[in-house]
Amino acid sequence: MKKHIEQPEKGIQLYKDDKAYLAVLLDALSLDTSEEGEINRAVLKAVLDKYDEILKCIDEDEPFIASWFPYSAEILTAMDVHWWMIAQTAFLGVEAPHINDDIDGSARLLGTDFCTILRLLTYYVEAEKSPKPNALIALLHPCDGTTIAHQLIKHNAKWADVPIFGCDPPYWDDDRSIKYYATEMKRMMDFVTEHTGKKMDIDRLREVCLESNKEYALWQEYNDLRRAVPSPHDWTLGPPQCFAMATYYYPGLPQGTEWFKKLVANAEKRVKEGVCGVPGGERIRMLWFDILPLMWQFDIQPWLEAEWGVNIVMNMFGYTPYTPIDTKNEDTMFYDLAKRSLNDFPMIRQARGVADNFLVDIARIVADYKIDCVVWPGHMGHKDGSANIGMMREKCREIGVPFL
Amino acid sequence: METKIKSQALQEFQEATKTISNPELQKWLKEGGKVFGYFCSYGPEEIITAAGALPMRIRATGVDSTELADAYLSSINCSFCRRAFNAGLDGGYDFLEGAIWLNNCDHVRRIYDNWRRKINTPMSHQMSLPKTSTDAQVEWFREELEIFKDKMEKQLGVTITDDKLWEAIKVHNETRQLLRELYELRKADNPPISGADALSVIVASTCMPRTVFNSKIKELLEDLKGAEGIKDYRARIMLLGSILDDPEYVKVIENIGGLVVTDSLCFGTRICWADVDEKAGDPLTALAKFYIQEKPACPRAFDQQEIRAKFVQGLADDFKVDGVIGLRMVMCDLWAGELYMTDIDLKASNVPYLQLEREYGVVGAGQLRTRVQAFIESMGK
Ligand code: SF4
Ligand code: SF4
Question: Considering chain B, what percentage of its residues have pLDDT values greater than 70?
Fold first, then answer.
C-alpha cells in the first residue's frame, strides 16, 4: 500500500534541471506565433505538466509508478494513478547538456553495442539520477534489451525497495495470445492497486476508453491527411507528437482529444491550401522506418530538407492500426487494450513477433503515403530489425522503392 | 593438460563435435531416420524423440564465413546466428526434415523468418517461449508444446501417444543423469576428464541418437572409473555464457593451467541439471513445467535472476572453483546484462571473475591466453 519512498537527491535535481531546460525551450518556441507553433507548444506544455505531476507526488508523498507506453496507459488513467515513463529522461534529455556524460557513464555499465535508451535508464538508476517510483512495471518486449535492462534495475540494490512486475508477452497475435495478455494485464492492474492503493473503476475505464477511441480516430484522420502531396507538415510536427499525446501524456483524456482536433484542423487547412510542410518544397517523400534520430534531429532532418527537399512523411512511431476499444464490458475492454498493446503500438507491433508486420507495414505505408524511398537507420538496439535487412530490401525491390 | 585415459567413446564424442553431421547421425539418415534441428536449449527434444525422429541442436561448427548470410543479416547480429544461417544457406542443413525456433533472443528468432523464406527445410516451426515463470506461463507453454506435437504428427504421419512421450522423457532424463555423473567426477581434486573433453561429450549429447549416446557415455564413465586424474593445473575455472561448442576454445584456457571443472552454458549444466518429472500425470504438462520452472533458466527469464545467481554460486562452491570466466558473444544484449549482474554477485561473495567477449567460431588464442594468464596470476595461482 502507500509507502514512503526516500528520493535520491541527485535524481530529483536532474529531473528539475531537465524540466527547467524544457521550460526555456518552451519560452523560445513562443516566438513562433503560428498555429503550428501553438500545437507544438501544447505538446511541450504536456511534457512539463508530466514533470510537475511527478514532482508534486514527491512533495506530497503521493505514490507514483514508472511504466511504459505499450501497456495501454488508459488503465492507469482510469485508476487515477500517477505515472511516468521510465525512459522519459533518456528520450527527452537527448538535447540536455548532461547527456554526453550520461552516455559515457552508461557505456561503462553495458558497453556500446546495447540500445542507448535502455543503457541510459539503467545508468540513471545506478547513478541515482532518477526519481524513485513506488513500483515499476517492466516492459518485457519487443527486444532482449528491455527484458534484461529491467532485470538490471531489479538487481540494483539502490532500487531494492521498488517492487517490479512485468507482463509476459506472447510471441503471437491471435485470439489466444490476446486473451493471455489480457489476463497478464489484469495481473498488472492488481499489482498497481497493491502498491498505490488505487482501484479500478470499470465505469471510469469505459469513459477513458471512449475518449481514447476519439483520440485514435483523430490520429488516423491526421495520418490520412499526411498522405496528401505535398504533405501538410514536415518532421517537426506530426507522428512523434501524436504518439506521445495518445499513449503517454493524455491517454484517454479530453485534453488529448482537443489537441488532436487542432492538429487535424490545421493539417486539413494546409492540405486544402496546398501548403507544403517542407519550407523549400517537397521533392522526396521518405519513410524513416525506425525511431527518428534523437540526438541529431536538429542536424540530420534539417539537412535532409534543405539539401534534398526530403519530407519524412511517416516513421515507425507514427504508424499504428488504431484498433478501437469495444467498451461493452470489462472483458471486451481488456481484450482490446491487450490487442492494442500487442499489435498496435509502434515498434512493439513491428519488432515483437515474427517479421511479417515489418514487411506488411512497409508495403502499406509506401503505397498509402506515396513514399519515394525507405530508410532503415540500423539503430544499435534493434537487433531483430537488423536481421530483417534482406527481407526489407527484397520487399522494397518488389514494390519498386529504393531502400537504404 | 589432457584427459589421461584413452577411450573409444571419448574419441567418438570428440569426432562428433568437430562437424555438423557426425557418423552416427549419418547412419541414422542412411537408415531412413529423420532429423529435426532446434536453435536453443529450450528446444523440446523429447517431443521430437517421441515422434521417432532425432533432435539435434543447431551449431555452425566448421563454418568460417558469413558471406551468404550477410545479404540478410547485419553486422550487429550475433556471430552464431550469422554462421548458422550461412550453414543453412550453403546446404549444410539440407538433411533436416524440420527446424525449430523459440523466441529465445532477437537474433535467433529472426533466423526463423529468414530461414523459412530462403531455405527449403520441409518443416519450419517457431514457438513462443514465456519470459516469466508462473503457472500461467506453464499452461501457455503446454499449449505451445501441444501445437508443436500436432505439427510433428502431421509432418511425419505418426501419432505421438502419451506412452511414447513418457518413453522419450525417460531416454532424455537418462542422458541428463549420465551427464551429471560426468560432472560429478569433475568435482574431484584431480578430475579424470578435462573441460575441453567434457564439452565434447555435452555437444555430442545434442546431436547423436540419444540411446546410442547413452550407451556410449556409459562406456566413457566406465573408462573414467579409477582413471588417473589431472594434477597439473593452476586454477579451477568455471565458464558462464551462452553458446560455446568449441573444445578448442577451452583447450587454450586449459593449456595455460586453467582447468575448466564446471559451467553454466547452453552446452553445459543448463541442459542437464534437472529432470522432467516422470511421475506427473500429463507428459506435456511435465515438459512445460520442466522448461519454464525447473530447468536452469537463461537470462531471458525475467523473474529468475536470483535463482540463476544462486545456481552459479552453488556450482562454484560444489566444484571448488577458483575463478569464473564469463563469455559474452559480441552483440548479445541478454548476456551483456546477465554478466554485469554476475560480476556484482560474484564480487559480493569474493569469487574472482573475468569477462571476455567472443565471436562464434573464432578462438583468438593469443589474446585469450594473455587475458586468462593474467587472470590466473591475479588469483595468486
Ligand atoms: S542463452 Fe538462453 S536463449 Fe540463448 S541460446 Fe542459450 S538457452 Fe537459448
Ligand atoms: S549468444 Fe546471445 S544473441 Fe547469440 S544466440 Fe545466444 S542469446 Fe542470442
Answer: 100
pLDDT band of B271, cuts 50, 70, 90: very high
Q: Which three cell numbers stand for residue A369?
A: 503515403
Q: Which residues pair with A169 in a beta bridge?
A: none
- Give the distance from CA A77 to its chain's centroid: 16
In chain A, the N- to C-terminal Cα span, in Å, equals 51
CA-nearest of A364, A345, A365, A357 to A384 is: A357
Q: Decide if A148 and B73 are in contact by the 8 Å CB cutoff.
A: no
Atom 7 of ligand 1: nearest residue by CA position = B41
Averaged pLDDT of chain A: 92
ipTM of the modeled complex? 0.95
Out of B74, B330, B341, closest to residue A152 by CB:
B341
Question: Which atom number of ligand 2 is nearest to the Cα of residue B81?
Answer: 5
The ligand with the least distance to the CA atom of B360 is 2
Per-residue confidence band for A232, with pLDDT thresholds at 50, 70 and 90 = very high
CA separation for the pair B213, A131 (Å, rounded): 56
pLDDT at A95: 66
- Cα B352 to Cα A156, A227, B235, B377: the distances in Å are 20, 60, 11, 11
Query: Can you give the pTM of this predicted structure?
Result: 0.95
Contact between B16 and B24 under an 8 Å Cβ cutoff? The reply is yes
Residue B226: band (very low, low, confident or very high) from pLDDT cuts 50, 70, 90: confident
Kindly tell me if the per-residue pLDDT of A1 is higher than 70: no
The answer to whether B43 and B141 have CB atoms below 8 angstroms apart is no
What is the Cα–Cα distance from B148 to A148, expressed in whole angstroms?
28
B342/B338 Cα distance (integer angstroms)? 6
CB contact under 8 A, A391 and B72: yes
Instruction: Give the model confidence (pLDDT) of B328-372 as tens digits.
Output: 999 999 999 999 999 999 999 999 999 999 999 888 899 999 999
Instruction: Specify whether the CB–CB gap between A153 and A36 falls below 8 A.
Output: no
Q: Best interface-test mutation with B: which of A151, A376, A393 has the largest number of B CBs within 10 A?
A: A151
Task: Answer yes or no: are the C-beta atoms of A330 and A204 closer than 8 Å.
Answer: no
Q: In Å, how far is B250's CA from the nearest CA of chain A?
A: 25
C-alpha cell at B341: 549482474
**Phi-psi domain of B121 (left: phi exceeds 0; alpha: psi -120 through 50; beta: other):** beta
Number of H helices, E strands in chain B: 14, 8
- Above pLDDT 90, what percent of chain A? 69
Q: Which residues of B touch A180 (CB under 8 A)?
A: 136, 140
